Amino acid sequence: MMKEEYDVVVIGSGFGGAITACRLAQAGNSVCILEKGRRWVKTEFPRSTGEVANHAFWDEKDKEEGRGFIEYLPFKNMDVIQGVGVGGGSLHYFNVHIQPPELIFDQARWPKAISKESLKPYYDVAKDMLAANKLTPPEGREVPKRTSAFIEAVAATSEQAEEIDICVHFSEEAKSPGGQEQGPCDYCGNCLLGCHVNAKNTLDLNYIPLAEKHGAEVYPLHQVVNILPHDGGYNVEFMELPEDPVSGTSVAGVVKGKKVVVSGGTLGSNQLLLECRDRTKSLPNLSDRLGKHFSGNGDFLFAGTHYKDKEIDAGRGPSITAGVGYTKGDSQHIYIEDLGFPDPFMWYLNGILPTTGRLWNVVDQAKNYLLRSLGLTSNFEAERIFNGGYMTKFLPYLGMGTDAADGKIYLDWRGRLKLDWKHKKSRAMFDDMIGHLKDISKKSGGHFINSPLWDWPSRKLLTAHPLGGCVMSDKKEDGVVNEWGEVWGYPGLYVADGSIVPSAISVNPTATISALSERVAFHMIHGREMEENDPDTPKNR
Fold this sequence. Notes:
Elements: E1 5-11, H1 15-26, E2 31-34, H2 49-55, E3 70-73, E4 78-83, H3 116-130, H4 145-155, E5 162-163, E6 174-175, E7 181-182, H5 207-213, E8 217-219, E9 222-230, E10 233-240, E11 251-262, H6 265-278, E12 292-295, E13 300-306, E14 322-328, E15 332-338, H7 343-352, H8 356-373, E16 394-401, E17 407-411, E18 417-420, H9 427-443, E19 447-449, E20 461-463, E21 467-469, E22 493-495, H10 510-526
């Protein structure tokens, strides 16, 4: 049963919330984690096209089928994917755990004390907990065709791709840092849809159970609606959502935290703090910088290379395995990775994308089947019915880069969340990215297919890596939180997630969000920076 007061109330259980909750609980604090979504177990993740349609997505308006773990939010010029559930975005993310180049931290927007060097101890401890490692094919399996095709395609441009660290378990069955049973990756390719063998090192296998081991309490289906200063701490007001949204009703509640960590994800944290400042007026002195410097991390999805005679089979293996970087000047960085789609998506796309080859195969084998059934000589080849699908020979990419981070998150007059993002100041970077993708396609013998979202006249993007809005700064007038994640003007109120990142990361941001969250927690506990080989380095077991 939830107590009336805790040392720390953590809002959200993604990378920011899970990490801070774990470290604070290990340090002896009483910790309460409030999570809007539900708790998932490996056997519940959707696999068929029907299950994906009915159970993968979170939609508060859909009471019958809206309790999934992926939330898709469309806005005018950019759509956003984010996670909902115990474990947050780790439930659906593509496992990548890599660090950005030093030039990212050289930008003036970053607090002076934060550099790649100062973050190294935090990067290291997070990497160890999440067991990030390069692809090692499990027994009986080889390197996925998609991985080999990507490395070969990049090599055709005289560049060299690298295999990257991913948080996936490849060896024999073992226990995670949180004590959960893990099986080896089975190459199903369904990382986006949750891992059914616990090979994916999601937060509910490490940080969260370790936090619970040290006394932290996790409350799923608790949606925070307000934060109110009270008696030297903060009252956190929430709605407890019913397990059965059709027949149940939400119940209002409140819990006090001597300290509060807001970790609702970039959009969630911005929305909550905007509501506290502009609607409930409970935190009226929040910075006027709140909601500004939003970045989509330069994410560029759905582009790829189509080959005439090369089988890619993009649905096999971990969703991302390799990448290549491009630097221009002292401020632009672009990173391109191979990308796999889950099986239900591959079957669906192969079904709706017409090709003359597949149509001919079906007609030809229907004829052969009829002749064979009549006892006439004919060579019926059932396997050819499945050949000729467009996606079978398509190599998808994920591009990321240093966009201008000039977007704005705000509430409209009805209190609805809005995102204002324009491509103008980021256009040159995206043009360069597309140029690299075209070069890879052409020199590897394929045909470049641009993202249908970006094609004129829409110029729209989809990001799975929203950043900013509650950015860190050295001065109150320049950001929402200080370099340690503490909100300017509100002692004891912290933010720890992607929203505090003041610029694009240009690579998958999970490692950096994890490092920054480790840093926030360490300073909350010790009041100082963690050093290399620090005796107070937190334990991961």
